[in-house]
Each structure stands twice: as structure tokens, then as C-alpha cells.
Amino acid sequence: MDVNVKYISHLVNHLLSRRTPEEMKEALRELLTDSELAEIANRLQIFEMLQQGIPQRRIADELGVGIATVTRGSKAIKSRMPSE
């Protein structure tokens, strides 16, 4: 088993063991710096806004991120979609 896969599985299980939103916030704050947490929260917001059909430029402007950041999010979503 790849070491990284083992550690990722451990991380997932650690987070899944949290029972309340407060416990999850605490776990995330213990694991991540403030900037890492903000970056992940922004990435989630980018995904949600893209799925709502909001234009990339508007997302970048509203979240104060670069267009390349939004484009990376768009590519990540498209790579997970089944081929037609």
C-alpha cells in the first residue's frame, strides 16, 4: 500500500470520527493553518459556484482569487465527470 494512501485513509477516518460540526471545526483547526483552512473553504465555494453555472470571472471577482484558481477548480470538476 502506498504510504500516502495509508495516511490519507487515516486522515479520512480521523475526520469521519467527529460527531458534530463543532468537533469537525476543532479537528480542522488542529490540522490546518488559518490560510490552509481558508484556501480549502474557498475551493469548496468555487466548486459550488461553478456547479451553479456562475461564470468563472465573476467567481474570481467575488472570492478575490485569481482566474487560474477558478479554472483549476473547473478542470477538477470536469475530470470527475463521466465521459459521454
TrEMBL record:
It is found in: Cytoplasm. One of its GO terms (cellular component) is cytoplasm. Its main location: cytoplasm. Keywords: Cytoplasm, DNA-binding, Repressor, Transcription, Transcription regulation. SUPFAM superfamilies: TrpR-like (SSF48295). Pfam families: Trp_repressor. It comes from the Bacteria. InterPro entries: Trp_repress (IPR000831), Trp_repress_bac (IPR013335), Trp_repressor/repl_initiator (IPR010921), TrpR-like_sf (IPR038116). One of its GO terms (molecular function) is sequence-specific DNA binding. Belongs to the TrpR family. This is TrpR family trp operon transcriptional repressor. It comes from Desulfoprunum benzoelyticum. The lineage of its organism: Bacteria, Pseudomonadati, Thermodesulfobacteriota, Desulfobulbia, Desulfobulbales.
